[in-house]
Write a structure and sequence with these properties.
The complex is a heterodimer of chains A (604) and B (286).
Chain A: E1 5-14, H1 18-29, E2 34-37, E3 54-55, H2 67-77, H3 84-103, E4 118-119, E5 129-130, H4 136-150, E6 154-156, E7 159-166, E8 172-179, E9 185-195, H5 216-223, E10 228-229, E11 234-241, H6 255-258, E12 262-264, H7 278-281, H8 288-296, H9 310-322, E13 332-335, H10 342-348, H11 350-359, E14 369-378, E15 381-382, E16 396-398, H12 415-437, H13 446-461, H14 468-482, E17 486-487, H15 489-506, H16 519-543, E18 552-553, E19 566-571, E20 583-588, H17 594-601
Parallel strand pairs in A: 1-2, 1-9, 2-6, 9-16, 17-18
Antiparallel strand pairs in A: 3-5, 4-5, 7-8, 8-9, 10-15, 10-19, 11-14, 12-13, 13-14, 19-20
Chain B: H1 13-25, E1 30-39, E2 42-51, H2 58-68, E3 88-91, E4 94-97, E5 111-114, E6 121-123, E7 126-127, H3 130-137, H4 156-166, H5 173-177, H6 179-182, H7 194-205, H8 214-219, H9 231-235, H10 242-259, H11 261-270, H12 277-282
Helix pairs in contact in B: 4-7, 7-10
The chains are: A alpha/beta (604), B alpha+beta (286).
Chain lengths: 604, 286
Amino acid sequence: MNEYETHRYDVIVIGAGGAGLRAAVEAKSRGLSTAIVCKSLLGKAHTVMAEGGVAAAMGNVYSEDSWQVHFRDTMRGGKYLNHWRMAQLHAQEAPDRVHEMEAWGALFDRTPDGRINQRDFGGHRYARLAHVGDRTGLELIRTLQQKAVSMDIDVFMECKILRLLHDPSGAVAGAVGYRRPSGEVVVFEAKAVVLATGSIGRCYLYTSNSWESTGDGHAMAIWAGADVIEMECVQFHPTGMVWPLSVRGLLVTEGVRGDGGALKNSDGRRFMFDYIPEMFRAETAETEEEADAWYEDHANHRRTPDLLPRDEVARAINAEVKAGRGSPHGGVYLDIASRRSPEYIRRRLPSMYHQFLELAGVDITVEPMEVGPTCHYMMGGVRVDPETQAATVPGLFAAGEVAGGMHGANRLGGNSLSDLLVFGRRAGQGASDFAEANDRPPTVDVAQVDAVVSDALAPFGREGGDSPYAVHEELQATMQSLVGIIRTGSELSEALEKLDELRDRAAKVSVGGGREYNPGWNLATDLPSLLTVSTAVTQGALARRESRGAHTRDDFPSADPALGKVNFVQRQTDRRGFDAPIQIGPEPLPEMPPELRELLEEGH
Amino acid sequence: MTDGTADPGFVSETEEAEATEEAEAAEEATVTLRVWRGDAAGGDLVDYTLPANEGEVVLDVVHRIQATLAPDLACRWNCKAGKCGSCSSEINGKPGLMCMTRVDELPEGPITVTPMRTFPILRDLVTDVSFNYEVAKRVPAFAPLPAGPEGYRMQQVDVERGQEFRKCIECFLCQDVCHVIRDHEDNKQHYAGPRFFIRLAELEMHPLDTNDRRELVRQRMGIGLCNITKCCTEVCPEHIKITDNAIIPLKERVVDSSYDPVAWLGRKILGRHKRTAEEAAAAAPH
């Protein structure tokens, strides 16, 4: 039996990005005892990386904008695979959530008449993204962090959660993990648990995600018996840095294109005009003149194809590079230098300016950037009830990137920051309602804790196994080459075999050193989640025999209307855990009310 | 290296030599990192030599050391893009972010990487920065005026002052370099440090905030101890003009409220009084 500290709360929130902080603020404001548990220091979560802005139909720049248009844009961007009710709630509530941020201290950029300014982004019909230069995520996380601190919410920093714990009825009743600085075990007993663990990007070699994005919440939900949906829908952001190699994958905000930047190939051609899909033809400019005029006047011109949804742009870049029209380091050019003044670029895109100058030695006010697709965002995730964010297992809630359904097959830029505010709050409410309705103190079983802890500590006593770094590198290479932006059935099957082999090796890794702040051991404890989510992504990709949104199958290049009406749902039924199989099958999407369906048809 | 009792911080000389030999055999350029390894009880600099890669930053080399030579080398990082402020350390003695310091811009020869000196060591390059999170709890929260029916109206020029300070990524390099606490541990009791002076300045200059924090800044946050050497401004990776735009204006506001005879007379006549530090502090959670 292991020694450990135990804490009891009404609500614990795992993850301290925007969704987790917003959920915790909500639960605490209800007077419930609330704790946030996060893998890094407070304020470092991946939300800080969000650049362009938060999408909300406030109509400050274009008064024609409304939640209905935002809803339509979101559904079309997601190729109708979204849960309609989530997309509706999101579009309706985002403006209030943005105003709330301002009341909590956020300082957004302003319009000339003093309101919150809004910028253009891909797939949004109107300029809709409230922003602070190109560091909007930092503004949101700092605002929420300062709000949480002012409310005296308990925060367990640098604490990795390994598994959710359940009570005898099967309901989630807590979690077990360890403190990274000391390596000591910590157990939480809670009436409700909110997962807000973010993304899965570290499954891939080239990603804009930090080390934390190992899919812990996705995997823990699966191991707890919850449903996950649309795991095949992984977004490759079209513009990541490609050089130097050490920063390959680092994000270049869509705001560059929103503020006038254009994509060009090695012939200097604005190739996006060659890749306008039928679905967006009616609303997209056909000539450079029209596209450029659109920046100044949206009412009388159609939008530039540089701002098509991310899946379209990423595929176009991929095709240009494959056709030999790429840049020297395997990307394409993103040119704002020849299109906007240096002062404008430095004011609108300060962190892009510094990022390129300091890391690549490129002055973006003088030269074009080299960019290419990078693994950026997970649309798929825990299947939740749109109103409460409740998962399919009692006591478990999920918000933000770990939750599925909101974005369908492809997320629009700007919709993630609004997602985490809208559904972070709803998850906090849902978890609070659940905790209040449940007066039994949570009970966790010592045997469950001991089993999890023994597994986590096993690599220390083992000799002759792989290094966790070696297994992780192979996993990333496998996912990048076989389950990447363009997929095919035979490669996906090959990937599943490779993942089986890596799972065996991950179960036998060896780790040296002690438990105190040991990154090798920390990575060893992230491997089970990385492998579980990689398996789910690959299984989903194999099952969806069509191309839709971010999921592109070379062997099934068109969309299949029948598959557009189903979610691929994955769950562990009998045996659960890292080494147990995950079942997968199609289930019908929820039926959209006719008045919302009509909105999708309008305006094109 | 199979259990927790083995010395966690040492790579055998053979491993190191092998890596060096391999590198030289291929006649590649190499990079040597001289990394401080140890814990609260003490430690030492350890050399790691690897083949050099084009365009790398110091953090890339640390990651390659972890992946090949020393999997347990402790270091904090997150975004690797200068946006989260996690990988703060001292590179060749100068406080900086490992993810934004390019190897090819440092002088030739071994690169020394040591943990931030102002904070207690946890392990290797990781320090206990909880001091900063404790100070954050003592800052009274933002307290805005009520919003109008369409939300707040503010002019860009008015929000820009605060926006400069809100660029802060909380890397705590300014805290690390500030000699008031770097060289005088006792001062941590009554000195907030540059990071929190810009936070307080941001709130003081916020167009909507209603709190008056000037007495708190003077009495509890210790602004008087800062003698404007501008070291904080020099190390700020976000290029925030901490001294000129935050500390000096804060000092002026404090002086005006405490020592200006005209203002004193005005308060006497009009019967207004300043908030005491206790009153201002009462608005903070701690």
